[in-house]
Specification:
The protein has no helices and eleven strands. It is mainly β and 125 residues long. Strands 2, 4, 5, 6, 9, 10 and 11 form a seven-stranded mixed sheet that branches. The mean pLDDT is 96.
């Protein structure tokens, strides 16, 4: 069975740090683009970042640039999202997703093949 197990969420104060992890199983991880999306209360789900299969190309949503870093370890079937200088607007449920592709383009949520269960991040002021 395909699984994406996200972890690392929690409560943090403004300016704090969290590292999210997502461990994949049940598919060939190294052939996928991996993404982190965020569901913010009262708003839709937005793409925070993605990383291509090789780790050489990244995308960041504007508010994440300079504060968040996405990375992957293909030997461990794991993708990470390091979040620095957290703000209350970063509060939400963070989901990891996988899509089988060798290109580097941004794709909408519906194009992704697999989704994890989400991990809650709460940033207090």
């Amino acid at each position: 069975d395909v699984q994406l197990q996200a972890s690392g969420g929690g409560s943090v104060q403004t300016g704090g740090y969290r590292r999210l992890s997502c461990v994949a199983s049940g598919f060939i991880f190294r052939t996928t683009t991996m993404a982190w999306d965020r569901q913010v209360p009262g708003k839709g789900r937005e793409r925070v970042a993605h990383i291509t299969y090789s780790g050489q190309t990244h995308y960041y949503e504007d508010s994440a640039k300079g504060r968040f870093t996405i990375s992957r370890d293909n030997a461990k079937n794991t993708v990470y999202l390091e979040m620095n200088s957290l703000k209350p607007d970063d509060t939400g449920v963070y989901y990891c997703a996988a899509m089988h592709t060798y290109d580097y383009y941004w794709y909408p949520r519906g194009e992704y093949d697999y989704w994890g269960q989400g991990t809650q991040v709460t940033v207090s002021s």
